[in-house]
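Residues pack. One example:


***
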Amino acid sequence: MITDAVEVAAKALTEGSLVLLPTETVYGLAADASNPLAVAAIYQAKGRPSFNPLIAHVADLNAAQAIAVFDERALKLARAFWPGPLTLVAPIRAPELVCDLARAGLDTVAVRVPGHDLARAVLRAFGKPVVAPSANRSGRPSPTNLADALEETGFAVAAALDGGACAVGLESTVVAVFGGKVRLLRPGAVTRAQIEAVVGPLSDDQDAVDAHRSPGRLALHYAPDAPVRLNVTEALPGEVLLGFGSVGAGEFNLSLSRDLAEAAANLFAFLRAADRLKPSAIAVAPIPNEGLGEAINDRLNRAAGFVG
């Protein structure tokens, strides 16, 4: 059954307008992937560099195969993790469905099936791929609830859907599957070990072009206004400490029980809340660099400007 909100969102997309769309990862600023003017409006609203490609969101695997060429390993990953927080980068099959601007001029397309019922309902009602980068202004922490999404880019949208707090809270894992190789371009909730359990060892053979095939790879990304200081066990005067485990009790502890999934879900919301206090800096406790911790540390390093 199509609800009124889903119908309004699908109509807005058809008319070339932007929509705030919930997913299990973060809230997205969504537009018709085939409409260059609508895609340009996303770049304008976010202040996003046009060389950074966008992810095409589709309702199911059949819709994904209509726009991308999947080899056997891509199919295995899609069947194992979709719907869910995994994006696959593969050769473009139907460039008319995901315009050149959305792909940043590349011969590949990034595509995923989101694991959020409301997002998939909109995609089914709209009937075409939708690009939906995180609904923050470029470089800012991604919004994981509707209020933060509205604060960031609500001025630019014709419709906004409330899907509650995002269950994952980190952008999707991005994996390139073409040219006979499987490469991890951006870590996320689907971990390296989970991917390798499906398709075997990942290739470390990446070049500069590979890095540009994935969103979220700028050196300074996901950043609050306050500077970010990492691997801190005690905050300096004027700082806010994002704790983890026994380091830093209180409202900004990412997970007292050292649960990395809980820490990931809290990360962007806590960065934003801490930033509103106008601290001299945001200090962050050490996070183990294993499993989901690899993705958390990737986002934190980019928030601090440490990844080139």
In short: The longest strand covers residues 86-91. The chain has ten helices and twelve strands. The chain has two domains: 4-211, 228-303.
